[in-house]
């Protein structure tokens, strides 16, 4: 007699408890009346057998749960192959069924998995069958129990939080350096660079993130560390701000604005700065809320004191680059309204000469709230000392360099900052079961 689909009890239900049965047996065994003794003698094998079957059911349920976990993991491993890009660390896995089968065999080499990969649906289905151990159930003629687990996983793209996203495939990707800790809170690292140094760490820096993915390779010096969860050969991520509209071109408010050599504090107003905006002072620089358009020249703000502004956004038009550096604190928060809602620095998407890089550094606290968006430039961020405050600190650029001599935090809590989320569609796998 075969016993199929025996494990149909809903997950979470418990097998019958044995203590009530054992107490009943003890009561009957202690009763010396003839009828009870006779009944007990007849019923005891059935009751004991039933208790034994309950034990078997518990064992089969445990075996089925383990088999289901293995089927889920194998399906996810297979679907992940759809998200693998041709990289430098190994050949692309063309048949998603191969990693699914390999995962099963690594755990249970005795099983023969049935794997079906659907290219159009980017899905992988895994079916596993095993025989349960028959114990007390054999007393009732059950000589075979088949345990089955099925799982289907699909590869698609879901909105995800990335605090550092390097867009350019031919760039140097994302590089970390310095001495200290760089933490990414509930957001990830993603580099589209396809070379062997798509993600690097040097010096004595430690990088902490839940997700770190690179289209190319990654490497860290012996004294530095990258997230242990990092992966290579990841599929490229598209620009999450590809539909962003730059501010409309307006007449010049200021021309060739240069306050170099200023000895005290400098206050700046929003507007269109044709020929650039350059300030160097031994004091501090404060920026009034609004949009600062930099056209036909650089943005250069250098202060021995602090640089601060709330509701401030810079648009770097054309070939304009930015250098913002303070020996003390840099505290900048993006505006909440268009055209630079949520953006601290934003560059044009039109092709620009290679090699352009914008830089932002602070000798004290580096507190930014907003997104840096420079799709055709490199961006170098340096924070010495304290960390960014709660809210949003996100960089989307052609390439990214991050350095610290203390602790630097990145976050993407858009709700707390009151900004519209900038969430790229990340390649992910998920179970359909």
What would the keywords be for this entry?
alpha/beta; 5-stranded mixed sheet; 433 residues; 4 helices; elongated
What is shown here, in short?
This protein is of the alpha/beta class. It has four helices and 27 strands. The protein has a 22-stranded mixed beta sheet that branches. Strands 1, 2, 3, 4 and 27 form a five-stranded mixed beta sheet that branches.
Which regions contain 5 or more consecutive residues with pLDDT less than 50? Answer: 1-22, 40-44, 87-93
User: What does the largest sheet look like?
Assistant: 22 strands, mixed
Count of helix runs: 4
Broad structural category: alpha/beta
Q: Using the CA coordinates, give the radius of gyration.
A: 32 Å
- Strand content bin: 35-45%
Nearest-integer average pLDDT: 83
Fraction of residues in H or I helices:
10-25%
Number of strands: 27
How many domains make up the coordinates? 2
Distance between the termini: 31 Å
Shape: elongated
Describe the protein in words.
The chain is of the alpha/beta class and 433 residues long. It folds into two domains: 2-6 and 17-158, no CATH class; 162-427, no CATH class. It is 17% helix and 41% strand. The protein has a 22-stranded mixed beta sheet that branches. Strands 1, 2, 3, 4 and 27 form a five-stranded mixed beta sheet that branches. A hairpin with a 2-residue loop joins β25 and β26. α2 (34-79) crosses α3. It is elongated. It starts with a strand and ends with a strand.
